[in-house]
Amino acid sequence: MSTVPPPRLAEVVDEGVMLSVVPWSLDGDRVPVVLVHGLASNARLWDRVGAELTAKGHPVLAVDQRGHGWSSKPDSGYDFATVTRDLVRLMLRLDWAGRAPVVVGQSWGGNVVLDLAAHHPDLIGGLVMIDGGTIELSARFADWDTASAALSPPPLAGTPLVQMEQWLRSNHPDWPEEGIQGTLANMEVLGDGTVRPWLSRDNHMQILRHLWEHHPRELYREVKAPAVLIMAEDRSNQRWMAGKRDEVAGAASGLRQVTVHWMEGDHDLHAQHPAAVASVIHDAFPAEPGGNPA
């Protein structure tokens, strides 16, 4: 099974905004899958998941959302209505013989695909949220200033690429190579060998503010498609886990059709355990979209 990503496609979804897409396969007899990354991430974090799903017969593509990776980086348009509209326009251009895809999102991307499913229910055949989709920052932090101080991005610009890679390998010794390389692809490598995030700090903070204002509990009942939650179990941080379990319980009681999977690991489960994540997605949905999770 090759995990070398295929050549990218460029899709214009708004005036002056192009999304870069990694089309793992546009053919296959299983339900199509669209992979949506999290905040400050990129499509390459899905490399191994994309390869695994393609090998199982799914048409698969991963996308760099606006502001990220190789996609356009406008100064605005990071609210949920706009980023979901980007995905709608992308999906409407895909020729999958009328088959509605399963849309998979991680972290902030999970909240994005939840919003997509709630406001455009007829476009998707299934919904998978990986350690996301339930994120409600206003329930975890007293106010926006507290949240922004706790969650603002670290100053990575100027870090040598070699140092960044050493840090990743030291802190994630069990990650497969695709996870390491996918994470490094969050950064632009400059001529002097240092890196800077593809997502600017200003755009990062815009997204965080919109995430602070996002309320998943208000959206669950609007989702028609069967949903799957794949949540990271971090036994070292029980206080954080208590809040996460409350969020998951709210999703489980609010969504019409939902299956919850807990997986021990890091927030980036798709990078750490890609084969297991791909198997959950594959097993959850039938060959034709529109059925119930297995």
Q: What number of structural domains do the residues give? A: 1
Coarse structural class: alpha/beta
- SSE string: EEEHEHEHEHHEHHEEHEHEHH
Return the average pLDDT rounded to an integer. 93
Task: Bin the helical content.
Answer: 25-40%
What's the number of helices?
11
Q: Tell me which CATH architecture applies here.
A: 3-Layer(aba) Sandwich
Shape: globular
Question: How much of the polypeptide forms β-strand, as a percent range?
Answer: 15-25%
Give the strand order of the largest sheet, numbering strands 1, 2, ... along the chain.
Answer: 1-2-4-3-5-6-10-11
**Rg over alpha carbons:** 18 Å
Structure in words:
- By secondary structure, the chain is an alpha/beta fold.
- It has a single domain, classed as Rossmann fold, CATH 3.40.50.
- 37% of the residues lie in helices and 19% in strands.
- It contains 11 helices and 11 strands.
- The chain has helices at residues 47-55, 80-92, 108-119, 137-140, 144-151, 161-171, 177-184, 201-212, 238-254, 269-272, 274-284, and strands spanning 9-14, 17-25, 33-36, 60-63, 102-106, 126-130, 159-160, 187-189, 194-197, 227-233, 258-264.
- Strands 1-2-4-3-5-6-10-11 form an 8-stranded mixed β-sheet, with helices on both faces.
- A hairpin with a 2-residue loop joins strand 1 (9-14) and strand 2.
- Helix 1 packs across helix 11, helix 2 crosses helix 3 and helix 5 (144-151) crosses helix 8 (201-212).
- The longest helix has 17 residues, at 238-254.
- The radius of gyration is 18 Å and the shape is globular.
- The two termini are 25 Å apart.
- Mean pLDDT is 93; it is low at 289-294.
